[in-house]
């Protein structure tokens, strides 16, 4: 399973943009000894989030699944809010940001990265 979006993924992500803020769901399954690398990534991503107006909404380990498909095996979840899909795309295209993405890639065995649309509650 891929853990990083491709250029085609990002193109589709922008083409399907309904406008407004986006919350990115990150479901993470770590490689053996991958937690340290991912934690390093999370300590270094802050300035890049700040530049585009992004913010971590929640980050934490996953525990007991009450209802889940057989074989559910995610280790952690991360929710990050961006002011727009363009802001997310701008961040991941930043050459300086790309220098730290190897930490994320090396840390993960599997991942889900999915855009969420806020409900007007």
TrEMBL record:
InterPro entries in the cross-refs: Dimeric_a/b-barrel (IPR011008), DUF1330 (IPR010753)
Coiled-coil intervals: none
UniProt name for this protein: DUF1330 domain-containing protein
Pfam family, one: DUF1330
Organism: Aeromicrobium tamlense
DUF1330 domain boundaries: 36-110
